[in-house]
Design goal:
Elements: H1 31-34, E1 49-58, H2 83-96, E2 98-101, E3 107-111, E4 118-121, H3 123-132, H4 134-150, E5 159-160, H5 172-190, E6 197-198, H6 206-214, E7 219-222, E8 227-232, E9 244-245, E10 257-260, E11 269-274, H7 277-285, H8 292-300, E12 310-318, H9 329-343, E13 347-348, H10 351-357, E14 362-366, H11 399-421, H12 428-434, H13 436-440, H14 444-454, H15 461-479, H16 484-487, H17 494-514, H18 519-526, H19 539-547, H20 554-564, E15 573-576, E16 579-591, E17 594-605, E18 611-622, E19 625-632, H21 636-650, H22 655-665, E20 670-671, H23 678-706, H24 708-716, H25 723-750, H26 755-774, H27 782-801, H28 805-810
Parallel strand pairs: 1-4, 1-12, 1-13, 5-6, 7-11, 10-14
Antiparallel strand pairs: 2-3, 8-9, 8-14, 10-11, 15-16, 16-17, 17-18, 18-19, 19-20
């Protein structure tokens, strides 16, 4: 083992995340320096020696609420907001700032692993990264640019079919849209056309290959088990060699292969790489990634000693393996890339670069229909094949009825789209293929430009809304085929419910445009999909209980705004998820424990541009009780009279009287705190609890102070402490620790240079920790941990980037 050991120790190292730093960021320019080489050689024009490619398939299923275009809190991902955020913390960000450690576990450098990994990142995940961590997003784009510069213009990134659809199970029209959307999404981010494309689950058939070739994709990556037979390539007028059967996964993965789709036209072909199956499996299911030395040794076992001029050792696995599934292994990759591979004389490359140096000299034929995670073709996504089951305990008989139900719905929606769309679009299906340009940029100017390109005539505002609704209907019809819905053992899992929510949204949009209602037929079809959960029985009930109940009308968005406005000072124009809300009037009055707000607003969808002009009244009765009513705006006179009447009723200081007055003016459903979206509901619940919790903190603190000597006596004599006193101590000490931490953070954020004050807070925290240890208090304070992590990162960034060394030296 060299001194620059990359052994991991569990969780990702917490620190030094941030922009590139000239002393720590070990990019491609730093590689020769680490190896003692002071020059960078020009890339060769032909392949010689051993090349290594590590491919990461980075992907998260779309988790956004179809009505809000945002991911709601997922408790199973705690302490993170949702699973995207958790996996990002464990994988995507650590790989953008992977630490290189010495043999003492000290960080001596940072590597952007994406600069050396071959990778694809699903468009739905890239969209999330772009929204939530633009720094990591830019590191990924920069990594591709650097790899292009290093490898003769061939970048590490490859495209992916748009939303992880199983391509052999898609109809031809959806195949084209998935590939065209994937290409355009890639082009809009990386600024170049993709050379390769990742197929979801590497699922492939002849029809999929035809579309890939038609769309200009040069190569794909498959599992060795997907090959049927292969043979050397020879000139057309030479005798053809015999085919070699490799159906059991015996294909040689160290070379690229050409796959001819039409023997009468040899130009009609696509190149295929097969990753090394045994090493790739070991990366996912053994300890081969425990350290870089172990990993590189395992890769070395695949090197062929037959003196061939060049060979490629390629491995592929879920990108989430590096840090999420196997904590800390991004450090293993980092050191392998910047030192170990080069120490063995191997060249780190990507598939496109290797293909440019070593075109295929063999051809291959594939099995008819295959995927990398199902030994039964693609039955995992349509039949009860056993793959993905919980040890045979649960069946997957629901898969076929679910597939058939969505296929039926897809065809119904296609007919609706064709009929309604031809009135608005010159070519409805061409418009759908181009809609990715709007998905990537929903600005008013871009949407208008897109519609102008495709419209049959100058569209009215109402027709523009219908056009966007139809396109969104088709987007959700594609999202409902996301492979995760069939991957696991039960239809009622979050993945299955999510694709049904996309189906429901598509149905709703179809009804908005045409009035056609086919939801009940879909529910009847889903009733043929048996659930493993007794309370659900079948997919129809799952749809009723978990899908229909989650639909969000515009009135609920308005109710969310109205109730939360009692606790938030909204500006006149406010963005609420994917809606813009313009407040045209708002008045609030308080009387004792009662609070009444009446308002008028315009709500505009940023996605479909549909609008609603609504009025609301919301009464807070105190505590957890809210009564909110919504209805369409019917005119200034009616609104003024209603507002005057409601505020007059409030003056009687009677909640019942105020509610009666609201019910006189509003008909239909009323809304309560429970109808708020989870994020805001939880925030308001915390606000409403603050006063009670403050009183409890004071009470526990007083009990703790009054009985401190008694507590110490119990601990000194090693007696069981009364639970009431121990709890009082834990609550009091936790409250004191939070108070000190908040004060410390405020001092550091304000940046007053008050080092003595900060030191006082640190001294106080140290004293609190000592006190907690003496009293055996197990403090569970998630907020304190998050605050400390923020402060540590802030301090490390200051150490790394503050150029005023004299100040740093004087501050010690």
């Amino acid at each position: 083992m060299t001194s620059l050991d990359a052994t991991f120790s569990g969780a990702a190292f917490p620190g030094i995340d941030g922009p590139s730093h000239p002393l720590t960021d070990l990019g491609s320019a730093m590689l020769p320096t680490m190896l003692g080489d002071q020059s960078v050689t020009e890339p060769p024009s032909t392949a010689t020696g051993v090349y290594v490619t590590v491919h990461g398939h980075f992907y998260q299923p779309p988790r956004e609420n179809p009505y809000l275009d945002a991911i709601e809190r997922q408790p199973s991902a705690s302490p993170f907001h949702d699973w995207n955020e958790r996996i990002h913390y464990e994988c995507y960000r650590p790989n953008a700032f992977a630490r290189v450690l010495n043999d003492r576990g000290e960080v001596i450098g940072i590597v952007n692993n994406y600069e050396f990994l071959s990778f694809n990142i699903g468009p739905t995940l890239m969209t999330w990264l772009e929204r939530h961590d633009v720094e990591v997003y830019q590191r990924i784009l920069e990594a591709d640019r650097r790899s292009c510069a290093r490898l003769n213009g061939h970048g590490n990134a490859i495209a992916q079919v748009y939303n992880h659809i199983i391509m052999p199970l898609a109809n031809d029209r959806d195949k084209y849209t998935q590939i065209r959307w994937g290409k355009e999404d890639f082009r809009s981010r990386f600024g170049r056309d993709p050379e390769g494309m990742w197929l979801a689950e590497t699922a492939v058939d002849h029809a999929t290959l035809e579309v890939l070739v038609a769309e200009g994709i040069k190569f794909i990556i498959l599992a060795p088990s997907q090959a049927l037979r292969c043979r050397p390539l020879v000139e057309p007028d030479r005798p053809q060699p015999e085919w070699q059967a490799v159906g059991g996964g015996q294909i040689d993965p160290t070379r690229p292969y050409r796959c001819y789709l039409n023997r009468s036209d040899l130009r009609h072909s696509i190149d295929i790489f097969f990753y090394d199956g045994p090493i790739s499996r070991d990366m996912g299911f053994s300890d081969v990634l425990f350290n870089s030395h172990h990993f590189v040794g395992r890769v070395g076992q695949a090197v062929r000693g037959d003196h061939r001029p060049a060979q490629l050792i390629s491995v592929a696995t879920d990108g989430e393996t590096f840090g999420h599934h196997k904590g800390g292994t991004e450090k293993t990759l980092a050191y392998a890339f910047v030192s170990e591979f080069r120490r063995w004389g191997w060249t780190v490359t990507n598939f496109a670069h290797y293909l440019s140096l070593h075109p295929p000299t063999w051809e291959v034929e594939l099995k008819a229909v295959t995927a990398w995670s199902c030994s039964h073709g693609v039955n995992r996504w349509q039949d009860d094949c056993g793959c993905g089951g919980e040890g045979g305990v649960w069946h997957q008989k629901w898969r076929r009825p679910l597939r058939d139900s969505l296929d039926w719905l897809r065809d119904q929606l296609a007919q609706i789209y064709q009929t309604a769309g031809q009135k608005l679009f010159r070519d409805p299906w061409q418009a759908r293929d181009g809609y990715i340009q709007v998905i990537r940029d929903r600005s008013t100017a871009n949407v208008d430009h897109f519609l102008a390109q495709h419209q049959t005539h100058l569209l009215t505002d109402e027709e523009k809304v219908d056009a966007l609704r139809l396109l969104e209907m088709q987007r959700h019809a594609l999202l409902m085929y996301t492979s995760c819905g069939w991957f696991f053992e039960e239809i009622s899992r979050p993945e299955g419910v999510q694709i049904l929510r996309y189906a429901a949204r598509a149905l709703e949009l179809a009804g908005d445009v045409t009035g056609i209602q086919v939801e009940q037929t879909l529910i009847q079809n889903l009733s043929q999909a048996p659930s493993n959960i007794e309370q659900f029985k079948h997919g129809g009930n799952i749809y009723r209980h978990l899908v229909s109940s989650a639909q969000i009308p515009l009135e609920q968005v308005s109710a969310h705004y109205a109730i939360s406005s009692l606790f938030t000072s909204y500006s006149q124009e406010q963005r609420v998820y994917c809606y813009t809300i313009r407040q045209t009037d708002y008045q609030l009055q308080r009387l004792g424990s009662l609070t009444l707000a009446v308002g008028q607003l315009e709500l505009i969808s940023e996605i479909t541009r549909e609008q609603a002009h609504l009025v609301f009244a919301v009464l807070h009765l105190g505590g957890w009780d809210f009564h909110c009513c919504i209805q369409p705006f019917s005119g200034r006179r009616d609104y003024s009279q209603m507002k005057e009447h409601l505020f007059a009723s409030l003056q009687q200081a009677s909640a019942a009287h105020a509610i009666l007055a609201m019910n006189e003016h509003f008909t239909g459903k009323s809304y309560s705190l429970q109808d708020l979206f989870a994020e805001e509901r939880h925030r308001i619940m915390r606000l409403l609890s603050q006063e009670t919790l403050m009183r409890l903190d004071q009470l526990y603190t007083q009990v703790y102070r009054d009985n401190y000597g008694v507590l110490m006596a119990f601990h000194r004599d090693e007696l069981n402490v009364p639970q009431e006193l121990q709890v009082a101590a834990q609550v009091a000490i936790s409250h004191r620790a939070l108070t000190a931490l908040r004060a410390l953070e405020q001092e550091m954020v304000e940046g007053n240079g008050a080092a003595p004050l900060q030191l006082n807070h640190l001294t106080e925290l140290e004293a609190i920790a000592t006190e907690a240890n003496h009293l055996c208090c197990q403090l569970n304070i998630p907020e304190a941990r998050q605050t400390l992590e923020r402060l540590i990162l802030q301090t490390l960034r200051q150490v790394l980037h503050d150029r005023d060394l004299a100040f740093l030296a004087g501050d010690k």
